[in-house]
Amino acid sequence: MTTTNFTLNSAFMFSIIGLSINRTHFISALLCIEGMMLALFMLLSFFSLNLQLPTLTPLPIILLAFSACEAGTGLALLVSTSRTHGNDHLSNLNILQC
Prior knowledge:
Blueprint: H1 3-21, H2 26-51, H3 59-85
Transmembrane segments: 29-49, 61-79
Keywords: Electron transport, Membrane, Mitochondrion, Mitochondrion inner membrane, NAD, Respiratory chain, Translocase, Transmembrane, Transmembrane helix, Transport, Ubiquinone
GO biological process, one term: ATP synthesis coupled electron transport
């Protein structure tokens, strides 16, 4: 395993660990998810460059488009949650309550 692959795999794993451990604020959860998407984007980019297959070329761009949609949706949920509950603490959210 090259150092680039090791670095990107460890960045992805640290984002998963950060998401599972640090669950106090909604914005920190969104940042961990964005870190995971950035690591996946870099891994797909290096993977498509190393294999040099034309069918793998659009995959990083498609992933980047999906991550932009995910970021927009997450920020809209953050604004909605902070307006209705007054803060972005995940402990204040109750899924069963409308």
